[in-house]
Amino acid sequence: MVKVVLDCFGGDNSPGANVEAAVKALENNKELYIILTGDEANLKAELENKKFDENRLEIIHAPEIIGCDEKPTDAIRQKKNSSMIAAIDRLRTDDTVAGMVSVGSTGALIAAATLRVGRLEGVMRPAFCPVLPTMNGGVIGICDSGATVDCSAEMMHQFAIMGSVYMESAFGVKNPRVGLLNVGAEEEKGDKLRRELYPVLKAEKNINFTGNMEGRDLLSGKFDLVVCDAFSGNVLVKSTEGACLEMLKMLKKNIYSNWKYKLGAALQKKMFTHIKDFMNYQNYGGSVMLGTRKTVVKGHGSSNAKAIQVCIEQVCRAENAKMNEKISTLLCNKE
Amino acid sequence: MVKVVLDCFGGDNSPGANVEAAVKALENNKELYIILTGDEANLKAELENKKFDENRLEIIHAPEIIGCDEKPTDAIRQKKNSSMIAAIDRLRTDDTVAGMVSVGSTGALIAAATLRVGRLEGVMRPAFCPVLPTMNGGVIGICDSGATVDCSAEMMHQFAIMGSVYMESAFGVKNPRVGLLNVGAEEEKGDKLRRELYPVLKAEKNINFTGNMEGRDLLSGKFDLVVCDAFSGNVLVKSTEGACLEMLKMLKKNIYSNWKYKLGAALQKKMFTHIKDFMNYQNYGGSVMLGTRKTVVKGHGSSNAKAIQVCIEQVCRAENAKMNEKISTLLCNKE
Q1: Is A152 a domain residue?
Q2: Cβ–Cβ below 8 Å for A214 and B238
Q3: What DSSP line would sit under A127-189, residue for residue?
Q4: Shared domain check, A102 and A134
Q5: Is residue B63 scored above 90 in pLDDT?
Q6: Domain count, chain B
Q7: How many Cα atoms occupy the beta-carbon half-sphere of B212 within 13 Å?
Q8: What is the CATH number of the domain that holds B259?
Q9: Which of residues 40-79 of B touch A (CB under 8 A)?
Q10: Which residue, among B157, B109, B38, B30, has the nearest Cα to B295 in the 3D structure?
Q11: Residue A301: CA count within 13 A, CB half-sphere
């Protein structure tokens, strides 16, 4: 039995999408047990008329909600009775629980997971690892992209190992190709941190290090994982997403400027649906905290039920693949 | 008279495009004097049958060429008789020369400009500042994006001032809106460096600081200049460019997969030309080295004559606006 806590509030479609996702996930995975956190009356109302195995669903009443505009450290201190903190607390105190999923505030979740769930043995700092689709139909993990902005080479060495185990455990990527985010392809490129880290990664036998990766190669499909500090990782992800969205906006604006272009677009309607679908990272699962004692998955705030279900199943896959045990073994043997 | 040295080799269309650009620029700017560097016989052959004022054109014979795949520091030491180093040397030794333009190796040019041309009084480190078009029809400068990967807050404080003077001098942007590249909008976000720098920029009266900028906002038109260390600046620029190119590639691939999509694209042909033209950063001028004693402009390696001409005129505008004097005055008064 894999037990997962699901924070049911804080997303654009919460709690409806969260509850629907839980019911679907329970139906698809007979070995799954889900604990919902949030306002109980609200959750019960959402569950009404839905069929599910009552022996594998539990509710923790926690009526407060952490908003995305709240300062993370204040929120997790002050809103002890929020759906997110209730989920984190259950995760922390119940050894039988494998992980949790939330679509709430990213900052609060990273802070709460780091401060309250604790680290796996051997881990210096946790890392936050989203995945993006690549142009050849694969995915790439970006590790770290949110947890540790001030990094040492040692920490990033660990990110490379944790990220590799994750890409293999959760996405079945064999021998993931690891790139180091840098300003050029050559070994001697980069700042002090990167020049210190490069030979360390090159010598590391537990990863498949394939050299430096430049920002322009993120979506190319040449890498399965990119190692970075959370500062440049955040820049990498946000500027890539931003540029894709601006391109689509520009296309749309241009298409609407002229009837001929509109007619052309009408012929391409299916194509644009396909492209949007391809770019929709909800289809690829949430971002995972690596290095915490339990698996914490953050889904996008705008996630629908399908996307949240993918996040729940991500926890199951990581658990079944014994991801955290593998990470801890590899990192403890290093010391 | 504004004197500009033009390195005539090292680009994809060199020396033809370079020579053509020089002739056009001389024709358009009667106060311009150009010094071409490169293989003399080759340059003379390109000049044959072209009309130009011989009193305002000079050739320095320097037959070697620095390739883009050469290690910058080795190249500038070993290829003393290359078109790029000859240009740098003329710039260094001739006080009447205002600046230079090159479309050769970016790494070699940054290294040579930093090591040989020297810094303006008051400048701690030079910065490399490209510009990109924004979606509302403006441009944004990225400072630093190539010269100084290991930065202090003091250096980046200077980048903000130099970049502001540049955007005003070369692009006529009044009171440029300066953003600090960071992982979130709030003041307390970021790594140690950014948290130290934010209050310094906020207190700086000589710039129009408008807060943090996230990677996704680069093309939005909300900022005229973004301040960053060269490491994250490089990630920002390359990932934005990479994502735009990958999007276009994906569109193309999809369009060619089906006759209906192809037909649609035929109706949109003019639109795609317009979009490509808009995205073509050659139209917006080259990247400039800020903080060096003379103005050094780097055009894209694939520049055509028109793009190189824009770079030459960029030097003229910076000179006429007394950009370097302004930078030096502002930075010296700080100390």
Answers
A1: yes
A2: yes
A3: EEE-EEE-TTS-EEEEESSSS-SS--HHHHHHHHHHHHHHHHHHH--SSPEEEEE-SSSSTT-
A4: no
A5: yes
A6: 2
A7: 20
A8: 3.40.718.10
A9: 71
A10: B109
A11: 12
Residues B269 and B310 in one domain: no
In a domain, B134, yes or no: yes
For residue range B48-59, what is the model confidence (pLDDT) as tens digits?
A: 999 999 999 999
CB contact under 8 A, A215 and B192: no
CB atoms within 10 A of CB A247: 22
- C-alpha torsion B103→B106→B110→B111, nearest 10: -120
By Cβ distance, the residue of B231, B245, B264 closest to A191 is B231
**B133 lies in the same domain as B277:** yes
> Do B235 and A266 make contact, defined as CB atoms within 8 angstroms?
no
- Alpha carbon A184 to its chain's center: 27
Peptide bond into B15 cis (omega under 30): yes
CA–CA gap between residue B230 and residue B243 (Å, rounded): 20
**A149-159 pLDDT tens trace:** 999 999 999 99
> Which residue is associated with the tokens 């009667």?
B30
User: Which residues numbered 177-206 in B keep a CB inside 8 Å of some CB on A?
Assistant: 181, 183-184, 186, 190-192, 194
Which residues of chain A lie closer than 8 angstroms to B219, CB-CB? Answer: 242-243, 246
Q: Range of A210's domain?
A: 124-286
In-domain check, residue A331: no
Residue in the structure block whose two tokens are 């990664």: A201
**Which pLDDT value is given to residue A280?**
77
Tokens of A120: 């796996």
pTM, entire model: 0.93
Q: Which residues of chain A register pLDDT less than 70?
A: 281, 334-335
